Amino acid sequence: MARKEMVRGFSQGMGTGGRVRLRTLSNLRWLAIAGQSAALFLVYFALGYSLPILYCAIAIAVSAALNSLLAVRYPPAHRLTNREATFYLAFDVLQLAALLYLTGGIANPFALMFVAPVVIAAATLNLGNVLILAFIAFASVSLIAIVHKPLPWPTGEALLLPQLYQAGIWTALVIGIGFTSVYAWRIASESARMSAGLAATQLALSREHRLAALGALATAAAHELGTPLGTIAVVARELERALVAGGRAENSAEVEDVRLLRAQAERCRTIIARLANPEEAMLGATARLPLGALLDDIAAPHRGDDLEIRVTITPPISTSEGGDYAVPQVWRAPELLHGLGNIIENAADFATTLVAVTATWDAQFLFIRVTDDGPGFAPEIFDTLGEPYITSRPGHNALGESDMGPVGALDQHEGMGLGFFIAKILLEQTGGVVKAANPPGGGAEVSIRWPRGVIDGPQPPAQSEAPG
User: Fold this and answer.
1) d(CA 100, CA 416)
2) Other CB atoms closer than 10 Å to residue 329's CB: what's the count?
3) To 5 degrees, how large is the angle CA 177–CA 182–CA 187?
4) What local confidence, expressed as pLDDT, does residue 295 receive?
5) Over pLDDT 70: what percentage of the chain?
6) pTM score of the predicted model
7) Which of 144, 309, 401, 422 could lock 299 by a disulfide, CB 3.0 to 4.6 Å apart?
8) Domain residue spans in the chain?
9) What mean pLDDT is predicted for residues 110-137?
10) 352 exposed, middle or buried (CB, 10 Å; 0-12, 13-18, 19+)?
11) What CATH fold (topology level) applies to the domain 284-316+325-451?
């Protein structure tokens, strides 16, 4: 379902504008201006045919003036919206209609050029704007078929085409404009849908490859780091004994620091053991905890003396709907533990004094929200939040820039921008929908929503599920 929404969003984006560069239309208009000028010069000066050269020159000059004005007003790479592109193409249709009105109407062989702007619109714009432009072209063809100046011809002579033949020309132009525009629009639509599907598939495959690469990296890191961490633990234990034997008090700062070092090394070894043996991390059928106990268990490793992590469980206010409002019993799935753990850890890294973890539920959904009193998400990364290597931490980001995020106590903590990406992927695999925001009161907020029965149902959440 998530992939379908991605394709739909991409297709809608393709149809709402931004596909035509101003430079493209300007170059085509300059080409038309050159061709129109050459035709007028040849007919009037080389062949000596009589025509209102001044009015024709004015029509061409207006088109050149528009091109010059747009070149000054916008950069060449400016992408036109559907409305802007429709307006400029409609101008081209009307300018061509004015020239043909002055030079014989649809009897002029260059009446075929009415097809060009409509086909360009059909290949680049949405259906509504194509229909608008086609209507303008039909109206222009019909008008100059009835009202027009004589076709340029040698002085003293006149070329009078039979009415039936002129009606045939009008019919051919109308059918040609209609058929070519519908054909071009259909081909362009099919191409856009295929491009959208290909882009969505490549994006999904890229995300899966990144996640698989991270899993392989974690296994390799677990293998390589096991021995040095064991050495650290042994050295820390010996150092603790030496300090105590040397007369240090059991509760002295030095002894406490060494014990903390040993405890953290043991914790690292435990985490690495789980990463190295993911199949052993899968929990049995009885591995469920009440929602509050699960969140306390996840938050415990990140609590500190200068940081409070407050877990709050808010039962539903009303029980009138007859649903099951007992505290949910949630599966301790590895994806859920690691995903929520990463989000709480990120909040703890940026928080000043408090991280609030609140949970509630109703008959349809289960909600968890993690907020902190830190600086919040950096505005420049908000659109790409959840992608790999996008971070608010000082040091790294996707563009290779530095110092994007908050400064101060975090200056020495550089991040790769993978924590939120991994958390989002893992929680989406459990069926959750993850959203990030900067609440009005300050700080950052990450909210997750699961349909009831996904993580608290009779069966543990499947890894292949995705929010839909």
Assistant:
1) 64
2) 14
3) 130
4) 92
5) 75
6) 0.46
7) 309
8) 2-205, 217-280, 284-316+325-451
9) 88
10) middle
11) Heat Shock Protein 90 (3.30.565)
